Amino acid sequence: MSTEDGPVPGKQPEPSGVDLARVALRAAKEQARARGDAVQQKKQARRGGLRSGAHADGRDPMALGAAINRLITERGWEAPAAVGGVMGRWPQIVGEDLAKHCEPEKYDEDERVLVVRCDSTAWATNLRLLAPQLVARLNEDLGQGAVKLIKVQGPGGPPRRYGPLRAPGSTGPGDTYG
């Protein structure tokens, strides 16, 4: 029941071509948005979350000192790193005279033993007498219990030579050192 003058009251007019195009465009935009959200979520999952923009997060660059401190803490290297610092400051800790004749060689982290080698047996004996005071000084600097024992070694002998002209059972010149 239509008249040529206009639409019939109470009845919806049929959509024209422009109206159909608008409806189709709106539906296409919604579908694209839905696909885009799914793709965006997949990208975010691959990247490890949303981008931070102007806010700080764990991916931001950091100063070298802070990065090294973070690595030392994460790996549990605090005590070995502190002892390494002691080895670098050995002359300030023990004094210039003693540092000229005795130097730290290694630190056993599990047993908390610092191995020190001296250039003569006299200096080794002197350091053995000073070892308790030195352990106390190191523990003040590093934290209580960082060093339990200082193992003092005398001078190393010449390299052992083995060959046909050695007497069986002989330790050579090494039995006069240490």
Characterize the structure shown.
By secondary structure, the chain is mostly helical. The protein is 49% helix and 10% strand. The protein has a 3-stranded mixed β-sheet with strand order 1-2-3. Strand 2, helix 6 and strand 3 (149-153) form a beta-alpha-beta unit. The model has no long low-confidence stretch (mean pLDDT 76).
Features:
3-stranded mixed β-sheet, 3 strands, rod-shaped
SSE layout and pairing:
Layout lengths: L16 H31 L16 H12 L2 H11 L1 H5 L1 H6 E7 L4 E6 L2 H22 L6 E5 L25
Parallel strand pairs: 2-3
Antiparallel strand pairs: 1-2
Q: What percent strand?
A: 5-15%
Helix/sheet category: mainly alpha
Low-confidence stretches: none
Q: What letter string, H or E per element, gives the SSE order?
A: HHHHHEEHE
**Number of DSSP strand runs:** 3
Estimate the mean pLDDT confidence.
Answer: 76
Give the helix level as a range of percent: 40-55%
**What is the rounded distance between the termini?**
122 Å
Number of helices: 6
What's the gyration radius in Å? Answer: 40 Å
Largest sheet: 3 strands, mixed
CA-based shape:
rod-shaped
Physical arrangement of strands within the biggest beta sheet = 1-2-3
Short description:
The protein has 178 residues and is mainly alpha-helical.
